[in-house]
Prior knowledge:
Elements: H1 5-15, H2 21-48, E1 55-60, H3 61-65, E2 76-84, H4 94-105, E3 111-114, E4 119-125, E5 128-140, E6 147-151, E7 162-166, H5 168-176, H6 182-202, H7 211-221, E8 226-227, E9 230-231, H8 233-246, H9 273-295, H10 299-310
Parallel strand pairs: 2-5
Antiparallel strand pairs: 1-2, 3-4, 4-5, 5-6, 6-7, 8-9
Helix pairs in contact: 1-6, 2-4, 6-7, 8-9, 9-10
Amino acid sequence: MADVQKQFVKFHDEIRHRDGDEKAKLQEKRDLLVDDLKKGLKKQAEEKGEDPLKFTSFNQGSYAMHTGTKPHDNDYDIDVGIVFDNIKDDFDGPVALKKKVRDALDSQFRTVNIRRPCVTVTYMKDKKPDYHVDMAIYAKIDNDDIYDIAMGKEHSSEENCVWDNSDPKGLIKEINERFDDEEERKQYRRVIRYLKRWRDRQFKNGGAPISIGLTCAAYHWFEPIKVAGSYNDLRAVRHLVNKMISEFTILWSRLEVKLPVTPKSDLFEKMTEKQMGDFKEKLTNLRESLDKAKDDESLKSACKTLNKEFGDDFPIPEDDNGGSDKSGTKKSHSKKPYVTTGTSA
């Protein structure tokens, strides 16, 4: 069997969101937006003779969970939580607060849109999205660890404009502390990134499972796997994918992935029956490709199979006899006995 671990690691190095220029630019834009929001809210308050709204901010999403990937469409993003000191009863509704945020950030240099879970600020370059910041808007409640998140679009019906309990900081903590061992945690994060890029590759026409759903699936079902004492990402991905397929309900053929913190909702509940069926079919195809690559004697052939699932960033070596891949690194793929620290499936 070909050993594709080096190719997986190279793939991960290619797709992960590095601590470099793009991440620094996102951080800079986040800080500028937070500052602009403070100024805009202050201006709104002065015009009405009121005290300005006060808030704190924090990073959330994949940026905070260390599971971010470079976007396949070059539209970089960062998620930011905005926690107002007020309680929800201080506002006319969740969308009313989001409108205040939108109006405070309105500028000719960016577009600001109210989406159901957040306010999205998009910066354009050559008439195309260059990067964006998603601001989740929260109000405080008595429990300091849990907030009310403002849900709803500007013209949504009343029943779709609600305040939902949310524990974003608790979620970050749960995801980040899932594994104590550093190397197990690294493999866990690598596998999450692989699934995210697979999703981007395989769901080009919409209906894709949301990123946090894939992340929480890994939180619930990922197991670290080694072969001959070394971490084996192919088998780790295969085990997780197989577990996800096995968790589809028999009656409705749906996959339920619960948020591990308040409100502990099903992260895939909004997927339609057709989307869920497509999701299962693509997961099954991925499992078959992983099995084919695992059993393939040819390194190049195995990598071609994986490249079709994960996209062109997955490297294909020039040959099977110590040749170099696209980056010029020499290959070694001697056979090793199978020994696992996780459940083989």
